[in-house]
Amino acid sequence: MTRHDSNTLAFMKMHGLGNDFVVLDARKQPVCVTADLVRAIGDRHMGVGFDQLAIIEDGADSADARLVFYNADGSTAGACGNATRCIARYLMEETGASDVVLVTERGTLHASDAGGGLTSVNMGHPHLDWQDVPLARAVDTLQLPIEGSPTATGMGNPHCTFFVDDAEAVDLEHKGAQIEHHPLYPKRTNVQFASVIGNNHVRMRVWERGVGVTLASGSSSCATAVAAARRGLTGRSVTLELDGGQINIDWRDDGVWMTGPTAHVFSGTFNAAWLESVS
After folding, report:
1. What tens digit of pLDDT does each residue of 144-156 get?
2. pTM of the predicted structure, to 2 decimals
3. What is the CATH number of domain 130-253?
């Protein structure tokens, strides 16, 4: 159940390249969510709809805020790059600062204004060892023993990246759902299908665990860029073309930086009677 003094619950709808979020600011109102409430809000016909729900909490020590993420099926998500960028932009506009520090399950993330309306976030170092992704057993993460020889990468959540001749031709709903539950991934996985379409230029489509097909995914973009660089298909600075638009990934010595646009679409409040009905 969600509890708050006014019997209504304020929220914001945001997206990064069509990867969309409902954001609750727990710094301004007490928030307590359940998996049932997450699923109800995430219903695109009877709720608001989102790929992930994000909660902003007070930060500790030097952090500006702490972020908690949920998938549309009610499960938790350790990382959500596009939501992190959206919230970073919101906090920078709130404070007038040009950078913020955010704490997530992934770790402490630094975000900054990249100019031209773009926001950058350092998603940290990728996990390349099998136990850190995590995988169920010791295998070569560069080429997994799965048909198509995909690459495994951990970005605070697990990823499985297939490099194919034509990402557009892949039956994403069928293949994504199948690979998400592959026994090699004990915590399920996000799935990407990518094609190199130019010099350091990649077309990528994504299936997110606990969500399904999405127009974009920040952590998936990072994982795909890392996988492409590891396999010698690109350099470490890559432009990805997603269903929702273009994002830039730069795998630097201090982590994987992601830069792209964000949008705060609207703000609203959930009706008290509706909240009561779904709690």
Report:
1. 999 999 999 999 9
2. 0.93
3. 3.10.310.10
